[in-house]
Here is the input.
Amino acid sequence: MPLTLCLVVLGRYVDRLEFLDILLGDRPPLTPVESFYQRFLAGDADEAQDHAELPLKERSLSSYYDEVALKGLQLAANDAERGVIGQRHLERVRNTIEGLIRELAEHEDQDPSSLDTQPAGTPRDQRGIPSNAAPEDCPHRSALSAPWQGAAPVLCLAGKGPLDEAASAMLAQLLGKHGLGARVTRYDAASREAINALEVTGTVMICISYLDIRGSPSHLRYLLQRLKRRAPGVPVRRIVASRR
Here is the structure.
């Protein structure tokens, strides 16, 4: 048996020799999520977009956001919480992900293989619906009740975390691709000082996006109270990418 193969096997099954598997093996040293984080930490917008374009050839946009982008942002948020990365690097990650979301606006939220099966001229708000989805799961916009047909019936409110606004932007973009108008609002817009000025006209639902939330933090409890007073009768949904 070749000596190199023996070293790779040792590195794969002996923790202290793992570096041998990384150096000599054929497995990538970084997972897709870690690779995503590395590019965004470096602020390399072109590399970040190139990193996204490859998986999007085989999966939907929502799948990429869910399985790669959000998990990569969780790594950044966790490192920021632990003090591993400073404000300058965090701002670089934030700016890069905002740019990527804008660049990916033209991608449909559908598996590329199923796009070819839809007839030419399909309206944009009907594209992106999986071919195996039932009509009641993804109704056409005209079939929705009048309030849901407004310009932005969904208010995507960012959580308190430093990168939660990016998660809200992803949600708003995906909702738009399925025919639901949405707008993104910063967490500060719902603070005690600003809540009375929060625009809720035409809002049918409020979605609060968190990359990570632990326990039942008091700031979330008071935020929900303020939102219910500002928009009585409007349902509020919490969307958490990771629970611990």
